[in-house]
Amino acid sequence: MPEPSPALATALTPEAEPPSETAPTSEAEPPSKAAPTSEAEPPSEAAPRSEAAPTSGAALASEAASTSETAPTPEAASTSEVASTSETASTSETASTRETASTSEAARPPVPPPSELAGGERGSGEPGGEAERIGMIRWERDADGIVVLTLDDPEQPANTTNAAFRRSLGAVVARLERERASLTGVVVTSAKPTFATGADLRELAELADPRAAFELATAGRVLLRRLETLGRPVAAALGGAALGGGLEIALACHHRVALDAPGTQLGLPEATLGLMPSGGGVVRVVRLLGVLNALVNVLLQGQRYSAARARALGLVDGLVATRDELVPAAKAWIRANPAPAARWDVPGYQIPGGGPASPALATALASLPAGLRRQAAGAAQVAGPAILAAAVEGAQLDVDTAGVVESRYFAELVTSQASKNLVQAFFVDMGRVVAEGAASADGPGGRARFEAPKAFVDRLLGVYLAEAAAMVGEGVPAPSVEQAGVQAGFRSSPLRLCDELTLATVRATATATATVGAVGGVAATVAEAEAEAEAEAVAEAPAGEGAVATGQDHGALAVLDRMAGEFGRSGRAAGAGFYEYADGRRAGLWKGLREHFGKDADGDGGGDGAANPVGNPIANPVGNPAANPVGNPVGKPAGIAFEELKERLLFVVALRAVDCFDEGVVGSVSAVNVASLTGAGFPAWTGGALRYVNGYPGGLAGFVARAGALATRHGARFTPPASLVERAERDEPYA
């Protein structure tokens, strides 16, 4: 495998520098306290959306740096982890599970008798009797009246919050309520090396109707709320990873004790797949940690924490050194706390740090969307606005009504095209790529491989950066060029990336097309595939046998030549490029760009902040982030449609991806999609370059028509290849 490119790895990673304080382009109104209180209504266009709540980008960066661990990106998760990241529910189980604001018996989902559940082993469940299996949960009651519920799915190596789990939990909770008077408390633990790791994304991928998604989220959330309000102490004994829905189970318990060992991870990583918690996770973590702390350190970036870090943050209450100590420690806490309630159910409880309306927090929240856009790249940009809205609105409501708000945002998000694209890319497509690599292990050399992404990534990055340089040469203000890349959803803004790679490298890459044969490389997991793609990205111009120079039909090369030759501005390493640098840090876009390549009537964009000047993303929490930019772009010149700037960047890259697929540079549609996301930083909301082509308004025919219009206006590089035109005529999407 080629050596990683430090320059590209750095360039494609969002920096920890705080975003410009002037980034937001619109003020948000505080969320209404008149949030919906009825759970009978499905999500609709009128579903609650918070316009308030944006935090200081500086606060986001500084708090994340000081108290959070680096969150694995969706590209860096293994296939099994990705498959169990966020909670789901089956549409067949919830016709009668509408919740009211209370948790009354009438609102509870019907529960089948234990005998109808899978694995219905029966024992006494009483002191001295055998443990009883209720579906995938073992029930065992000790002499003190403490029931130990052991999650143990006999069909899977890890516990997941799937349909079988929900049936089992429903039966268990109903029995706990019936026997409450004779119970001392409840311990929830696991027989697996992990506690629970969330749900199978295949279930989520099937959700298309927001009404059904809302009902399913409601059903699971109500079950956990019933456990939480049982009236007996409930403790979680976490002997391994508790992620996504697994952590939501633990958060519904009154006390959490975790095994202090390397395998123990806790977090809500749904945002890394363009999703959000659905079992009350947003509601509870906000009340546990405070609004800002929960958003920055748990919800928006999907961080995963070791047991010790989770305790320091406040997600768990105690640690033990060995697995054998877990349940005894949980039981000891129950005996010492015979009648607890969740802290947020105690009258007078105040959320740490205050509510969103408190002056200090309101000031911090005012610029959080800009910080989110800066710090949380890729998939988190899809989910972040919905998570932010649910957290801020919910913090102003009672627990049960806040849960309704969470379910509604989840339903809207999980059924959005952007979210489905991400699930498709990082679960389905990545699974296929891994399977293709594994199959190739049977061939010569016996090694699985991820097909030669270097030539592919080179070509996609080359045209992306060249198009941005061409825009500068046309007189488009540099801040608008940068904003076009950011608002389209690319992982790095183009002029910043040019500087990171050096302009000479960009020029060489933009003028070369490498042909490449099979290149060995192992990518057996999502983490390896992502590392492979980034490691093999552009570090130097393609050269050697098979390199073919191809001229560009626009002015990018002239711009790059003048920048490096005439002005001596070759990139960050030289201390001068499209940006100015002071002590190695970007200090703003070079003012000479306006002088030499066109006048910016609106100024220079305010320095470095112009690289990521975004509006308030909460205005479009779950839609296509590129389709609905908020506010007018900084430095937007008259006569130039900002939407067209974004489309030029998207189209030029997507068209080169089509070329690479046709030429066999990357051998499958799934591999093209995955490599375009993980290697070339193509916008995550699209699900990949070929999925973007498929999903363009009007389908392939719409994409071809728009490409033709761009070719007429901007040059032959936008001319759709014959293969694409023929596919459009046959209405045959890439699959």
TrEMBL record:
Residues 1-132 are annotated as: Disordered. SUPFAM superfamilies: 6-phosphogluconate dehydrogenase C-terminal domain-like, ClpP/crotonase. It holds the Pfam family ECH_1. The keyword Lipid metabolism applies. Keywords: Lipid degradation, Lipid metabolism, Lyase, Multifunctional enzyme. Coiled coil: none annotated. Residues 456-513 form the 3-hydroxyacyl-CoA dehydrogenase C-terminal domain. It comes from the Bacteria. InterPro entries: 3HC_DH_C (IPR006108), 6-PGluconate_DH-like_C_sf (IPR008927), ClpP/crotonase-like_dom_sf (IPR029045), Enoyl-CoA_hydra/iso (IPR001753), FA_oxidation_alpha_subunit (IPR050136). Residues 1-107 have a biased composition (Low complexity). GO terms for biological process: fatty acid beta-oxidation. One of its GO terms (molecular function) is enoyl-CoA hydratase activity. In the central section; belongs to the 3-hydroxyacyl-CoA dehydrogenase family. This is 3-hydroxyacyl-CoA dehydrogenase C-terminal domain-containing protein. It comes from Pseudofrankia asymbiotica.
